[in-house]
Design a protein that fits this description.
single chain; alpha+beta; five-stranded antiparallel β-sheet; about 40% strand
């Protein structure tokens, strides 16, 4: 049993699992699977929590108040030859106070029914909760700018991070909660995720999100 994000996490049905903190509040979970079969990542969560699997195979564990309790990035699975193996998250309720995720590798679609997978498999999952680690006001391009620093997990969090990251910004800086600032945030998440900071300026024009995308997040 290990501690993750304040919850108890166990990994079942696997011979070898390591956890490496990313130094930014998240954790890399690396699991070795010796033979075919589902891998179950199980952790305690409050009652009425909900597990949502996004289209990009990232996962959100959301509390009754709508806050993100934990997020799972898309799993990266490779076989003994280094070939990538397709995998899917399947949420499973495992009692009233526990939520589980079954990860069932399924490479038949990509390789064909007659192909075989070289075991052991290595499954790598990046987990976290906070998409944003900090915000700081400054001056950029001659005007006020809010520098938003994403966490390591936030950069890898996919659709889950996009859906819940703005709440982190507003929690850290309530005055940033405007349509202009939110559109810039989403634009950076979609198109500039790896930048050191996501710089949001309140003086940018109030145009559509598509307009921000077309202007590469910086319309004038």
């Amino acid at each position: 049993m290990v501690q993750l994000l304040g919850e108890d996490l166990t990994v079942a049905q696997t011979p070898s699992t390591t956890l490496d903190p990313d130094g930014d509040g998240g954790t890399h979970v690396r699991t070795t699977v010796a033979e075919p079969g589902a891998v179950r990542y199980t952790f305690d969560a409050p009652d009425e929590s909900v597990v949502t699997v996004a289209r990009d195979d990232s996962v959100a564990v959301v509390g009754a108040d709508g806050t993100l309790l934990a997020g799972f990035a898309e799993p990266v699975v490779t076989d003994a030859t280094g070939e990538e193996v397709r995998a899917r998250w399947t949420p499973v309720e495992d009692g009233p106070d526990r939520i589980a995720l079954d990860l069932a590798p399924d490479d038949a679609e990509r390789r064909g029914a007659d192909s075989t997978t070289a075991y052991p498999l290595t499954i790598e999952v990046h987990l976290g909760r906070d998409v944003v680690s900090g915000v700081e006001w400054g001056v950029r391009e001659g005007g006020t700018s809010l520098a938003v620093t994403p966490t390591a997990w936030g950069r890898a969090s996919g659709t889950t991070g996009r859906s819940y990251g703005w709440a982190d910004v507003v929690r850290l800086e309530p005055s940033a909660d405007t349509t202009v600032m939110r559109n810039q945030f989403l634009c950076h998440v979609d198109g500039a995720r790896q930048k050191d900071t996501w710089n949001l300026e309140p003086w940018r024009p109030d145009i559509s999100f598509i307009g921000y995308l077309l202007a590469r997040c910086n319309p004038t």
